[in-house]
Amino acid sequence: MRIIIIDIIRTVARSLPQGFTLAVIISVVFEYIRHKTLNGYISSLENKKNRYFIYLLTYCYMVLYRTLLCRTATYAPLSKVWQDWGIIKCNPLKIDPSPFVGNITLFTILILLILINFSHKFKNDKDMLIKCTVLSFVLSLSIEVMQIITCRGTFQISDLVYNTLGGFIGSVIYIKFIDKKINT
Q: Which of 6, 7, 35, 159 lies 20 to 30 Å (CA to CA) from residue 125?
């Protein structure tokens, strides 16, 4: 567990400044185009919705950094397609929950941020749950395909399953806890 926490802190420390800078630049450009002034952008930051959008952009960069940008070249991206299914590796006494916990956490947070920003686009809770689960699968598949194309990382079926499960969990958390707080 300590290794997972250290890995998360290291990833955040490396990608947060770049991701936040990129998110601010993108939001400045969008708001400048919309308001044609920098004052319009500054006043738009007072809106909580705009701040959550910056958080979403920053986190999207952090996901890309973690899954693609920080990886070294892999010359056999299809070599580990069926690996990392369990939390117990070769030695049953040594538990490594990092692939399982990391992938689920990564997409749980991503779907939560997407729903905080775009929950009004869904008809009802069932629609939200289905579409967000499918979205997490499509995003995960896109990342895995990009890993094949760029030879950074390896394509793994377990990542697809864990990421989709993380998206499902994020949707359930939003529906059960966050949506009720926002609407009350």
A: 159
